[in-house]
Amino acid sequence: MTADATQRAIETVFRMERPRLIASLARMTGDIDLAEELAQEALVVALAEWPSSGVPRVPGAWLTAVAKRRAIDAMRRRRMVDRKHAELARELGEAQVDIGEQIEAAVGNDVGDELLALIFTACHPAISADARVALTLRLVGGLTTQEIARAFLSTETAIAQRIVRAKNAIGQAAFTFEVPHGAERTRRLSSVLEVIYLVFNEGYAATAGDELVRPVLCAEAQRLGCILAALLPDEAEVFGLRALMELQASRLAARTGPNGAVVPITEQNPAHWDQLLIRRGLAALARAETLGGANGPYALQAALAACHARALRADDIEWPRIAGLYDRLRVAAPSPIVDLNRAVAYGMAFGPEAGLRLVEEIAGEAVLRNYPPLSAPIRGAW
Amino acid sequence: MRVMVFVKATEDSEEGMKPSPELNQLFVDMGNFNEALVNAGILVAGDGLKPSSHGKRIAFDGPERRVIDGPFAETRELVAGYWLWDVRDMDEAVEWVKRCPNPMFGPSEIEIRPLYEADDLAGLIPDEAAAIHDGVGKKLAEH
User: Fold this and answer.
1) Cβ(A302)–Cβ(A284) under 8 Å?
2) Cα distance from A79 to chain B (closest Cα, Å)?
3) Which of A115, A139, A196, B84 makes the best surface tag, with the fewest CB within 10 Å?
4) Which residues of chain B are within 8 Å of residue A230 when distances are taken between CB atoms?
């Protein structure tokens, strides 16, 4: 391999290992900034050593061992005199142990819990949504600040500021990098799902820039969804969100016309829908329902997307079923937009009068006065 | 991007699977590797293929179609298994393959091939053919 290819290989390995590495270091030091710094130092060591020694058999464990040794040095320098210090003093003893043994010890470690803790921390509801999104893409998605800026058509400075804001919020609240349980878990999980869906939506219905879709963000969100599903195999709404994203992503290729305009779902060519994603989406939806989550907000939206995915002609769309799903979504996640879409579905299912009656009920709501579809004729607005 | 990852056959794999402690270990190691692929969110599908003695080939030459029964000679060019992965780029696919346990008892190869995507084909398919493909796609969607 040429030197250039070797360096690329090392950087790829690092990108793959970085989230778990940072998760492990954040748990150990309680400090995301320090964790990132230590991970970066481990990369520098790898770039110096791996070209001659070769990439280690278990690179993640190698990087973790190197970074943890440096963490202990850093802690020692900072002379932290608290409980953390006592804990670290114990690890300090271990630090004298041969690095090979440390790597062997780290290989068997289940770091899934640490990664999950990092995800919950980066998506903490105490952090503003845009900062949560940037931090999650940086730490869990492994994107660089530059890549995030490009994806969101923002500047690196702006994204860096969001990340700093998020880190400050985490530092001030002194989060513990633990996985929450019980009712707290439910509340926090919805914040995690919100972040992933925000990333997806920014890709699916770009709010900035000339391009209407940015598939990179959709792919990133779907990957985060898969990772989360592997970590939380019994959480129905995780599968509901996965189903929703996969069913929507199945239409990415059909969603923009040759002139770059959005093609409404009723006019899309189903031949361009990605059948593999549809099958995966339907399977994830079935899993969400099996887990008792049929009435979760994401599962219901996925069920709506499934109605469209199954209908190959506009005539095949089961509007009464869609109307029924909106009845339930209205309870699970009340919003004026849901009410409006429900009115459209009622109009399609039971005739214009049924739809118009519901429109009149919501027309007075101020939030929607500036929402364009309300002033447009009722048709397949969804 | 989606890539197809081919596990190439060896003389061993062409003989079919026989119970052995080594095979047991391979199943365990492969299971762990597959789990890592799922945890990373990249595994889409995968399967192992029976030896080519179970396979058939059809040779084309003009209007002629000739059926050839397996096994086939060029063992190392045969496929013994596959995965379909969704990865960020080829570099990532390469690093994942490096982590795969050797799928064979002895030297072996794994090959990575990216799938054509809509963008690659744009401008290549004439309108008439595109219409036929659309029709096929629609029918496929009905299944």
Assistant:
1) yes
2) 37
3) B84
4) 38-39, 41
Return the CATH fold of A111-205: Arc Repressor Mutant, subunit A (1.10.10)
Rounded distance, CA A198 to CA A122, Å?
14
Query: How far is A244 from A247, CA to CA, in rounded Å?
Result: 5
Residue B56: strand pairing partners: B69
A98-132 pLDDT, tens digit each: 555 555 555 545 557 889 999 999 999 889 988 99
Residues 151-210 of chain A with CB under 8 A from chain B are none
Chain B touched by A224 (CB under 8 Å): yes
Residue A146, both tokens? 């530059």
Partnered with residue B83 across adjacent β-strands are: B5, B46
All residues of chain B having their beta carbon less than 8 Å from the beta carbon of residue A224 are: 41
ipTM of the complex: 0.86
Number of other residues whose CB lies within 10 A of the CB of residue B83:
24
SS3 for A232? coil
Please identify which residue in the block is written with the tokens 């931090």.
A135
Alpha helix (H) residue ranges in B76-126: 90-99, 118-121
